[in-house]
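Propose amino acids for all 215 sites.
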């Protein structure tokens, strides 16, 4: 995905405020072999781009001063009340250096799975993204996970899914190979079995019989 940025000469609170009043967003590009560089972007164009998942999880082509470079979106600051972007950070990437990026998990096929179609179970999405490590050329926009073979009462963990070639999960903190991505549970409103219903009715019948004897 491509976007256009412009060089920014001034920095500071006052300069940033004037930019925002003019419909621009101050930002910075850092990393790689170059020095950190101040940039500005059109607010409306950036706002629309931020609505797209791919803008957050893929390598972007940034055009700046007539040159194109590859960057990753690293941080966005929003106004606490208004729909306004206050600042944005990008990181330059090298084709020969691995990057760490959070990638969305796209689940599909659960409605056709035995767990849902036959077992009427509920499928809980525990994680919707994971952090991966790979070269920029190998970075996928998302990781597709097929749930069409899910069975009732099972869990799907990180080690159960197939990652694209050249992509590795970054295991740290809460993320491990046995981290649960999907859990399948029976619905809470499931009706009790017939024998359970009969057993529940028996105690209620006993007081009625005792009352008839007294009469």
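Proposal:
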């Amino acid at each position: 995905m491509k976007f256009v940025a412009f060089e920014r000469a001034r920095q500071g609170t006052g300069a940033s405020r004037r930019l925002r009043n003019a419909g621009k967003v101050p930002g910075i590009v850092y990393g790689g072999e170059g020095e950190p560089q101040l940039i500005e972007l059109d607010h409306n164009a950036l706002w629309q781009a931020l609505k797209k998942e791919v803008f957050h999880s893929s390598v972007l082509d940034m055009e700046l001063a007539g040159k194109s470079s590859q960057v990753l979106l690293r941080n966005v600051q929003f106004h606490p009340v208004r729909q306004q972007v206050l600042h944005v950070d990008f990181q330059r990437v090298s084709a020969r250096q691995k990057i760490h990026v959070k990638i969305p998990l796209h689940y599909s096929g659960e409605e056709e799975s035995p767990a849902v179609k036959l077992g009427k179970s509920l499928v809980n999405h525990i994680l919707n993204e994971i952090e991966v490590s790979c070269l920029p050329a190998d970075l996928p926009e998302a990781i597709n996970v097929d749930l069409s073979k899910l069975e009732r009462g099972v869990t799907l963990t990180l080690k159960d899914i197939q990652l694209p070639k050249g992509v590795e999960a970054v295991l740290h903190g809460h993320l491990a190979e046995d981290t649960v991505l999907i859990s399948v549970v029976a619905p809470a409103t499931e009706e009790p079995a017939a024998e359970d219903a009969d057993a529940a009715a028996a105690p209620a019948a006993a007081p009625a019989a005792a009352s008839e004897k007294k009469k």
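The first strand starts at residue 2 and ends at 7. Residues 112 and 148 are 5 Å apart (CA to CA).
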